[in-house]
Predict the structure.
Amino acid sequence: MPFATKGQVIGLLGGSFDPAHEGHAHITREALKRFGLDRVWWLLSPGNPLKEHGPAPMAQRKARADAVMGHPRVEITDIEAQLGTRYTAQTLEALRRRYPGVRFVWLMGADNLAQFHLWQDWRQIMETVPVGVLARPGQRISARMSRAAALYAPYRIAGRNSQLLSHATAPAWCFVNVPMVDVSSTALRAAGGWRSA
């Protein structure tokens, strides 16, 4: 289990990381700066309920993530597998119980905000933790026009005030545009440089 101290603000970046790549590392470094986070945990999921095929083995994905990220304030963890949670809302609830006094911020790419309304208990997520959204290539417009963005528009923190997110009370979310690294796990798998289950 990762270590956290009371009062810390920890950003949570979940996903299959199948495989992890420089785009993930880039948005993580940007999130640390833009949202005033103490640390970021990469939550390597046992599997994505919205994806038909399972990811590569956890040990393989974790080794790749460790090699790609390599930052002293970022921890690579399979805590979802340890907790036995399948959905983000369940994971967040379990983390809040396990780490009282720690503030969590959910991090996602703009592509995830565009389809966020398809996630299990997505409103519960929005209403229990601040959410930091980092723009990725080609996803800015669909994310800003998404159901979640429309419903929670009154709770949006302007990008220029992104440092406020880490201490905001949910619901609160912030969309920031960052210089992008245009690479994806899907493209890496398609190119044959990564063996997935």
Summary: The mean pLDDT is 87.
